[in-house]
Amino acid sequence: MENVVSRPEWSRPESVELKADFDAGRLDAEVDAFGVQELQFKDVNGINIALSDDKPDLRVGANKNPPEAAFPITKGNTSLKEALDTGIISQREDGTIGKLLTDAGLSKGLAKVAAKQYVVPAS
Hints:
Helix content: 25-40%
Oligomer: single chain
């Protein structure tokens, strides 16, 4: 790869920054969430978006485990935590999350969650 932008390890670029670096020619490739990339580049000719799990490198944790999303809430706000938990479980089980993903042009498989979670619980 010819163009590589080096940043300190603690400075993970956000999707918008990655796209700006790519568009400006400072990167030849970028790695980001598939859903983000699919939407950002959907109308751009000559750009290929590939899922890393097509040929996974198992040294990369994100290739071995489904992605996670977090909903930061105030510590001790158990009623909101319970409401979010109930809503997410319900929408996962009834297929709502998968339908939202496919309606957005993404893979229904992105709704899969890991059995083991790595986010520290809110309460």
